[in-house]
Design a protein that fits this description.
Radius of gyration: 26 Å
CATH superfamily of the domain at 2-72: Winged helix-like DNA-binding domain superfamily/Winged helix DNA-binding domain
Strand order of the largest sheet: 1-3-2
Number of helices: 5
Helix content: 55-70%
Number of strands: 3
CATH topology of the domain at 2-72: Arc Repressor Mutant, subunit A
Largest sheet: 3 strands, antiparallel
Oligomer: single chain
Structural class: mainly alpha
């Protein structure tokens, strides 16, 4: 499962930072390494791991290697995460419908017998 590899690879904070820097567009290693607490060769190693996981691609511009996010590499991870979002939205929809139905039942009870307390319906 590609999403498991993506999660594993992105679990490393330095690797994640390198990956996040690519959000702004393609960059060479020296730009990605600037300001990080690791060496340029270490950043190159992180990029190699990201590339092996299918999250990053590279191309040459003269003697420089330019790295960019491989959007297709994120597709399976996103699909997996979207499944959680879909489940959460479905649970919210069910809860909202149940709450709305309970309010309708309470309103109907109060209109039919305003002086009596209505019993809660058992679900």
């Amino acid at each position: 499962m590609a999403y498991e590899m993506a999660l594993t690879v992105l679990a490393d904070p330095t690797r994640r930072k390198v990956f996040e820097r690519l959000r702004s567009g393609p960059h060479p290693v020296n730009v990605l390494a600037a300001g990080l607490p690791v060496s340029r060769p270490a950043v190159s190693q992180h990029l190699k791991v990201l590339k092996q996981a299918g999250l990053v691609e590279e191309h040459s511009e003269g003697v420089r290697r330019i790295y960019s996010i491989r959007r297709e590499g994120l597709a399976e991870l996103r699909e997996w995460l979207d499944g959680f979002w879909s489940d959460a939205l479905e649970a919210f929809r069910i809860e909202a419908e149940e709450s709305q139905n309970a309010k309708r039942q309470q309103g109907a009870c109060m209109r039919s017998s305003p002086s009596r307390r209505c019993a809660k319906s058992s679900s």
